[in-house]
Design a protein that fits this description.
Belongs to the metallo-dependent hydrolases superfamily. Adenosine and AMP deaminases family. GO terms for molecular function: deaminase activity; hydrolase activity, acting on carbon-nitrogen (but not peptide) bonds, in cyclic amidines; metal ion binding. This is Adenosine deaminase. Residues 7-327 form the Adenosine deaminase domain. It is a single chain. The chain is of the alpha/beta class. It has a single domain, classed as TIM Barrel (Alpha-Beta Barrel). It has 13 helices and 8 strands. An 8-stranded parallel beta sheet has the order 1-2-3-4-5-6-7-8, with helices on both faces. The protein is globular and about 50 Å long. Bound molecules: zinc ion. Residues 12, 14, 164, 192, 215, 273 line the site of zinc ion (ZN).
Length: 330
């Protein structure tokens, strides 16, 4: 079995966080911007810890300044994902970085990204959708125009709304206004919770934002009653084990709770989060899960089926993706 060839669905991928360092370096050179401090000598991204990671991420992202830049980024990321067998990707996209959450500017960025995504689907067979994401450490007031961008462009390629950023800032409920606006526009909801924050952050996400998926969510393992609630309410976790290991949420792969959560009956999926930052790919995640937890083709198939069921896309797209999963021999 070639793990690279297995068809994969990825639900948790930050578009800028997936930017190949070579693309960002090349763009910085074209624009004569000096961001050499964000790179190691070997050319990869350089950061010390989670807060430093966020600042390196924002510095790297600062070279992406136009809709055309985002189209190039989208193309590069989808090519990379398709080369690892990914057949469907959901991107976190941030109007904050695309025109400062101005709806008119956002429409132009979105148009360029959507065109690139459509081209990639035609040429490489990889489908995708966008989840507009507010940045938690920018504060609740900044989230409102972001949610308006999401609501104004809901439908089509944009099918979800979410929140990323520094989970230690404020509470999930501080952003309820924005999540309510997105829900009323018909968008599906997810938020980062239970990555750095404990069970309380997960409980707040469910109670105050009424999300159907959680970004990470793994810290829920500390509270088994809450684990049972996730199962009862059919909440799906977007688990990114490699990200958790590199950032130090867990010290080693064999200490990661993905297997324990799955064994208790929680619906888990597998994603890379910000792959070049964490020196990972979907293939690498699969290899580690096979090595550490003994996952086989049938386990990966089950994970893909869970991701398909939880995907924020329409029924026709799901039917096409289901055919691709079925076609692949187990
Ligand atoms: Zn994330």
């Amino acid at each position: 079995m070639s793990l690279r060839d297995l068809p994969k669905l990825e639900l948790h991928l930050h578009l800028e966080g997936a930017a190949p360092p070579s693309l960002i370096r090349g763009m910085a050179k074209e624009k004569s911007v000096d961001i050499s401090r964000v790179f190691c000598e070997d050319g990869s991204y350089d950061f010390r810890d989670f807060v430093h990671f966020l600042s390196v991420y924002e510095a790297a992202t600062s070279v992406l300044k136009s809709p055309e830049d985002y189209a190039r980024l989208m193309t590069a990321v989808l090519e990379e994902s398709a080369s690892h067998g990914v057949i469907y990707t959901e991107f976190f996209v941030s109007p904050d970085f695309c025109g400062g959450s101005d709806v008119t500017a956002w429409r132009e960025y979105l148009h360029a990204m959507e065109e690139a995504a459509t081209r990639a689907e035609a040429q490489l067979g990889i489908a995708s959708r966008g989840i507009v994401t507010c940045i938690r450490h920018f504060g609740p007031d900044k989230a409102k125009p972001t949610a308006l961008c999401a609501a104004e462009t809901a439908g089509g390629w944009i099918t979800g709304f979410g929140m990323g950023g520094d989970e230690s800032v404020g509470h999930q409920g501080d952003y309820a206004y924005s999540f309510d606006m997105a829900r009323e526009a018909g968008l599906r909801l997810t938020t980062h919770a239970g990555e750095w924050g404990g069970p309380t952050s997960v409980r707040e996400a469910l109670d105050d934002l009424k999300v159907e998926r959680l970004g990470h969510g793994v810290q829920v393992i500390q509270d088994l009653a809450l684990v049972d609630r996730l199962i009862e309410e059919d909440i799906v976790l977007e688990v990114c084990p490699g990200s958790n290991i590199v950032l130090g949420v867990y010290p080693k792969w064999d200490r990661h709770p993905i297997q324990a959560l799955r064994e208790r009956g929680v619906k888990v999926t597998v994603s890379t989060d910000d792959p070049p930052f964490f020196h990972t790919t979907m293939t690498r995640e699969y290899e580690q899960l096979a090595r550490v937890f003994g996952w086989r083709a049938s386990d990966f198939h089950e994970i893909s089926q869970t991701a398909l069921d939880a995907a924020f896309c329409d029924a026709d797209t799901k039917a096409r993706l289901a055919d691709k999963l079925k076609d692949h021999p187990q």
